[in-house]
Specification:
2 copies of one chain form a homodimer. Chain A is α+β, with helices and mostly antiparallel strands. Helix content of chain A is about 45%, strand content about 20%. Chain A has helices at about 5-20, 25-30, 40-50, 70-80, 85-100, 105-120, 170-185, 190-205, 205-225, 250-260, 260-270, 320-340, and strands at about 55, 65, 120-125, 135-145, 145-155, 160-165, 230-235, 275-280, 295-300, 305-315. In chain A, helix 6 packs antiparallel against helix 12. Chains A and B meet through helix 6, strand 4, strand 5, strand 6 and helix 10 of A and helix 6, strand 4, strand 5, strand 6 and helix 10 of B. The structure holds a DNA duplex.
DNA sequence: ATTAGCACTCTACAATATCGAGTGCTAATT
DNA sequence: AATTAGCACTCGATATTGTAGAGTGCTAAT
């Protein structure tokens, strides 16, 4: 059972209007639009049908209609006009990112900021995921009598450190040797491979290194897993107040509480599942607290490997078309930056913006 | 011209009451307190005087009085009863911190969380300040053809990294040599000393190293300075909603906007100036946006050196006595943790909590 | 010097009225 | 058969009014 062309037209008009104004859309206001050549009464009839089919909702009997999650889903899948940023906006975005290229983390934070600024929403950026990055160096440095810092340096420019306890009689030079030996053993490997490698290799030779190295990597893995939730950078939390839906202090508070439980945010972003773009509307989100929110995410790459996710979160009433275009642009800009800053010899990368293969969710 | 004993008693009662309830205090309610043996009318007269002297304010003619900044200042300096945490609270606090000792940054974040939880305010923690920490190791690692990561490891367990460009023909082994040479040159020095040392030492010998090392350290310094503002960790931003003063969405928004400009927060905390404790009430804060807020800070130590600052921010109506006791307890706990985790051989550290030398601000 | 008494002020809150945008239904029109 | 005009009705938003309560300053009595 498909919906008539006219119904779709009306539905689109309602959603467009509602996204712009935030107030429930009535038949009269809708009929006033110049491209509407039908009377309010007709619209009312169609609206009643659309409501029955689950596309529209009514806050109360004498209010206009608001789109349901189902309507938004239809909208993003087939109805909306895809938009592109204008030159100034692209310029702004790129300029902003390009001033921060000297540190991976700065790029991440700049991304969060500019993203929230351009969308007027709260942005989330997942830092490069370690499972996909290669170890470049492991360095163990003694910083006090029996404490040492294990520092891991990855090919993405990410640095991780874990504090461990070492026997106080262990000397710097010995730790240095272990560092070098370990590095040689696991260089250009990913973290889990590295662990396997150490277990396997260390079995036979170098017995005195083996135990220590295994313990050490075990501690590192444990700690890095434990702090996975910390790897989400936020931007524009205050933007939530710009939306009339959140003028209610209590709602705003709940939203901010959500943002403080970073594990949840991590789950939200990690659910992206390597899709180039995902859109989750209202109850499509696995997390019940998000039933009135939508999450749109995109991936970014370092050296052509999908290595992280970023996106925005906000009320289901959001300008999906614009946000998607911002994410598109952002995604290519980030990829370009990481390309240039980490692999400048390879300049003929493919254009991966504004493509057609946006694998939208569900 | 000093204030009579009775006036002080009344003022203290008003402040205590206002801190508890948040509603302007009237003469009748005050007279009902059992320890008040004077009539409402008398209190009214005294109140009128106190208002004239600038200690009390009236929201409108027929409301009760509220304390002014001046009153709070008098309160924290001489009037309030100092309190201490009960055993459960101390237990809670220490337990919370002790589960996070395996990474310096975790301790910092745990501090922010537990601090905001125990005070019901927004907490700020400044990470260890590099100016006071010693370099333990400098490691340069090539992560792509012409990019390398400079990683600095400090005695406090802090790790900093900066991305630099290197000539693509430069080999790993050469960078390794420079790393070792540099480390040897600057180990156990602070960052600025290190810079001087490199400039001085490199003048004569090792010409090929000199230019590179100087450029490198220059880039590092520049970048670390640029990101100084990032070194503030926040906790409990949402707590602002618990205060009736911030039920107004607009005010809450402005507060959150303030929290997003970390430079400001950095200034707030850095203004602590190595005082063990500081209290800044309302307009005592240099920043005009804080005219209705108070900031209370404390310092923490690593290896007995004052190395960072933490504190809370909230409406001037806050429970100064309780917050100070939380900060006291927190300060000793943190010092203890860093002592144990970094210098476990030295167990007879001095008790530095609940002392009398709290150098309060102004 | 202190307090009782009193007229006055101002906010918060509840009750009431009004307006306007929107609806569903029915009957007339195309 | 589809569309539209007309109409009675609903409901939230807003303004108006009245009332209760907590507080004040002033004056006169203690």
């Amino acid at each position: 059972m498909s919906i008539s062309k006219r119904k779709l037209m009306i539905l689109k008009a309602i959603i467009d209007d509602y996204i712009m104004t935030g107030t429930p859309v009535g038949s009269r206001t809708l009929a006033k639009r110049e491209d509407m050549h039908i009377s309010p009464a007709t619209i009312r009839n169609e609206m009643a049908d659309l409501e029955e089919e689950g596309y529209l909702e009514q806050p109360h009997t004498s209010a206009g209609r608001t789109p349901s999650d189902k309507a938004y889903r239809l909208y993003v899948d087939t109805l909306m006009n895809v938009s592109t940023l204008n030159a100034e906006e692209i310029e702004f975005l790129q300029h902003y990112l390009n001033t921060k290229v000297n540190q991976v983390n700065n790029v991440i934070e700049a991304t969060a900021q500019v993203l929230s600024e351009m969308t007027n929403l709260t942005s989330l950026v997942l830092v490069p995921q370690l499972e996909k990055t290669e170890i470049k160096r492991i360095q163990i440095v003694k910083i006090s009598l029996n404490k040492a810092l294990v520092v891991l340096i990855f090919n993405t420019g990410t640095v991780k450190d874990v504090l461990i306890t070492v026997p106080s009689e262990m000397e710097d030079s010995h730790l240095e040797n272990i560092s070098n030996w370990l590095t040689e053993l696991v260089v250009n490997k990913r973290l889990e491979e590295a662990m396997k490698q150490v277990k396997y290799f260390a079995k036979g030779d170098l017995k005195e290194h083996k135990v220590f190295a295994e313990q050490l990597l075990g501690a590192v893995l444990k700690n890095l897993h434990a702090q996975a939730g910390k790897d989400v950078v936020l931007g524009g939390a205050k933007n939530i107040f710009n939306h009339p839906e959140y003028q209610n202090v209590d709602k705003a508070k709940r939203f901010l509480a959500l943002l403080e439980t970073k594990d949840t945010l991590y789950k939200i972003l990690a659910a992206n599942n390597d899709m180039e773009f995902t859109i989750r509307i209202g109850r499509e989100n696995a997390i019940p607290e998000l039933k009135n929110m939508s999450v749109i995410t995109a991936t970014y790459r370092i050296s052509n490997e999908k290595i992280g996710t970023f996106g925005v979160i906000g009320p289901t009433r959001m300008d999906y078309a614009r946000i998607l275009s911002v994410l598109h642009c952002m995604s290519s800009s980030m990829n370009e930056i990481f390309m240039h800053s980490l692999e400048p010899e390879d300049n003929n990368y493919e254009n991966n913006g504004y493509g057609s293969n946006n694998g939208k969710g569900k």
